[in-house]
């Protein structure tokens, strides 16, 4: 599994479907906060998380990494900024 290619493919699919982190998380059975971090291309997702999110994507969706990188679909999906926790 190539991590960057997997994350870009996940972002592209979410953008193509118009999915939010919550809807992608629900479909992949991962917490919405984890899906949000992946879609924002933040954090360090586990292989299990990436596999769960990839499993939702049809096998023939954007399999060419060069075409995927050239598309506008693989940009991070930004949402509301996180609130800083009080200490």
What order do the helices and strands come in, and which of them pair?
Layout: H1 3-17, H2 21-28, H3 32-39, H4 47-55, H5 65-70
Helix pairs in contact: 1-4, 2-3, 2-4
How would you sum up this structure, described in words?
This protein is an all-alpha fold. Helices cover 53% and strands 0% of the residues. Helix 2 packs across helix 4. The chain is globular and about 45 Å long. The mean pLDDT is 81. This is Helix-turn-helix transcriptional regulator. Keywords: Plasmid.
Q: Output the number of helix runs.
A: 5
Number of domains: 1
Q: Give me the CATH architecture, please.
A: Orthogonal Bundle
How many E-type strands? Answer: 0
Can you identify the CATH class?
Mainly Alpha
Low-confidence stretches: none
Distance between the termini: 38 Å
Biggest β-sheet description: none
CA-based shape: globular
Q: Average the pLDDT over all residues and give the rounded result.
A: 81
CATH topology call: 434 Repressor (Amino-terminal Domain)
Q: Could you state the order of secondary-structure elements as H and E? A: HHHHH
Radius of gyration: 13 Å
* SS strand fraction: under 5%
The chain-level structural class is: mainly alpha
Helix content: 40-55%
């Amino acid at each position: 599994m190539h991590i960057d290619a997997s994350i870009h493919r996940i972002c592209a699919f979410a953008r193509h479907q118009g999915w939010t982190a919550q809807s992608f998380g629900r479909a992949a059975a991962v917490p919405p906060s984890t899906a949000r971090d992946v879609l924002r291309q933040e954090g360090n997702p586990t292989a299990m998380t990436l596999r769960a999110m990839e499993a939702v994507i049809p096998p023939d969706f954007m399999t060419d990494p060069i075409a995927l990188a050239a598309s506008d679909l693989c940009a991070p999906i930004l949402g509301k900024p996180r609130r800083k926790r009080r200490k």
